[in-house]
Amino acid sequence: MRTDVAGELDTKEGLPAPPPLTGRKRWRWVPGFLLLAAFFVFVLTRPSEERKLGQLFLHAQPAWLLVALVLQAGTYLSTAFLWKRVLMRTGIHTPVLALARLALMKLAFDQLVPSGGIGGSLVVARGLRKRGASSGAAAASVLVATLSLYAAQAIALGASMLFLWSRHQVTDLMRWLVTAFAIVLAIVPVALLLLTRHRSRPPGPWTRRVPGLEALLRALSEVPPGLLRNPRLLAEATLCTLTVFILDGATLVATLRAIGEPLALEGALVSYLLASVAETVSILPGGVGTFEPAAVGMLSVFGVPVEAALAGVLLLRGFTLWLPLPAGLFLLRWNGTPKQQPG
């Protein structure tokens, strides 16, 4: 019943429900889990004098794990503050905690439904509409967040590569990953800005191939132009996104500290960012099977033993993916997002 009501609300608002959480997509996780299992076998069977993985988990320090939990809570608050700043420009005042719940829902939806982030954007837009924002203001929040994400990634990755170059640690694989990601960084923001500039032109038939894309583009056509031409707002949004990256890097520092492995923030941040690039390029749900080996490989560049690196990364993934995922899924169901279909 909740799903039907939500669908009616979306029709009135011009924002459809995001693609359903269909069980048919579960097989997409299989390649990632197979890759992760193969990496586990590689690490656990290699000769090493370091402490075993199980011992590292057993002796993890709860205080540092609590620090990691607090840092991750900060990432959702930073994202919520970004949306709040955009909404305030349109005269809408929404509590940060309510927006932080939307951030959790977006994470869960983007991980469960491979739609290039479009489904998660629709979740956010619908949530903002239900909190009093116009279609244009809701779409503006999504668009500004997306543009700031790409701007922050460009800044952070550029700084990371300069840092590695200064230490003579740039490899051919790193260059390939960053180059592939740079192409996406260049194409997506330009495409979004062009689509919002040609407001009178209806979305083409090709947009119907991606669930929710046509409706999202129509909503983007209602974005107030002044919001996208406000340098201060875009700078604030980019700073919020950079803060999320720093908090994620600090979370990795905390999980490594929990198992007794110290690492400077810059090393953890560079490792996290390069692993995130590998996750994005792989297109596997949640980056499972690609993020973990990439992060462990980067940490080994900074002198972290393989077993300790794997333990720290798995703890990190617990805080960034596996703990928030069920919470976000619960919020999605509670808010009337279409349920899974058998199959």
TrEMBL record:
It is a multi-pass membrane protein. The keyword Nucleotide-binding does not apply. Keywords: Cell membrane, Membrane, Transmembrane, Transmembrane helix. It is found in: Cell membrane. This is Integral membrane protein. The chain crosses the membrane at residues 27-44, 64-83, 137-164, 176-195, 237-259, 308-332. Coiled coil: none annotated. InterPro entries: L-PG_synthase/AglD. GO terms for cellular component: plasma membrane. Its main location: membrane. PANTHER family: UPF0104 MEMBRANE PROTEIN MJ1595.
